[in-house]
Specification:
This protein has eight helices and five strands; from the N terminus they run E-H-E-H-H-E-H-H-E-H-H-E-H. By secondary structure, the protein is α/β, with parallel strands linked by helices. It has a single domain, classed as Rossmann fold, CATH 3.40.50.300. It is globular and about 45 Å long. The two termini are 17 Å apart. The structure holds adenosine-5'-triphosphate and magnesium ion. Adenosine-5'-triphosphate is lined by residues 13, 15-21, 147-148, 151, 190-192, 195.
Length: 207
């Protein structure tokens, strides 16, 4: 039996796939329909998480690959302690812009660290809680990078990575989500409205 009554949704995909755009529109629409929603993200939702996010994005030169994963994991542990678990206990619908599968794809497949170890530490950080629904925004790395360069935000350390890194991360997501029935793959090349409609109806169906 489930320990918590809330509903946990993660949104995953490579940088520039449209996760944050989708997360915001979903949270707005669900709130307008009177659902109790928490919109959150990894990394950087908690006070500790914001410090970690700054290190990861601005001081990547100080951080080796293993330390990078452990910083994401520390952010995740704090996020579950402060935001996710209390929210689930209060029966909220939680929408998280990225979660554990991002670490598996980026640090596991992208940086080629030990996949099984990452799974184990992720699960420990999350008290073995897994998302009830994952929305995977699927997009090719070329279009995603074009969007990032057009977005007019400072590039993060990841966004300066090579195209071969992105190919590994994307292949990683495909591998992680293969055959999983709680994962909805959405074509990220569609318009924002089409992406939203697909995501929204899959949430309503799953609730
Ligand atoms: N369906 C879409 N079609 C075209 N452009 C889009 C679509 N969705 C989002 N965008 C635009 O693409 C850019 C990247 O979107 P967004 O910031 O939501 O991606 P993200 O997945 O959150 O990226 P990151 O992982 O870097 O945070 C933004 O400028 C956004 O306005
Ligand atoms: Mg984003």
């Amino acid at each position: 039996m489930r320990e918590y009554s809330g509903f946990l949704i993660s949104i995953e995909g490579i940088d520039g796939s449209g996760k944050s755009t989708l997360a915001q529109s979903l949270a707005k629409a669900l709130m307008e329909d009177n659902h109790p929603v928490i919109l959150t993200k990894e990394p950087g939702q908690t006070r500790l998480g914001k410090k970690i996010r700054n290190i990861l994005q601005q001081e990547k030169n100080l951080v080796c690959d293993k330390a990078e994963f452990l910083l994401f994991a520390a952010d995740r542990a704090q996020h579950f302690e402060e935001v996710i678990i209390p929210g689930l206990k209060k029966s909220k619908i939680i929408i998280s812009d990225r979660m554990a599968d991002s670490s598996l794809a980026y640090q596991g497949y992208g940086r080629e660290l030990n996949i099984e170890l990452i799974k184990k530490i992720n699960s420990w950080c999350m008290n073995s809680i897994t998302p009830d629904l994952t929305l995977y925004v699927d997009i090719d790395e070329k279009t995603a990078l074009e969007r990032i360069f057009r977005r007019k935000q400072l590039l993060t350390a990841f966004e300066k990575e090579s195209i071969t890194f992105w190919k590994r991360v994307k292949a990683g997501f495909e591998e992680i989500f293969k055959g999983k029935n709680n994962v909805i793959k959405i074509n990220g090349l569609q318009s924002q409205e089409e992406v939203f409609n697909e995501a929204y109806s899959s949430i309503i169906k799953a609730l």
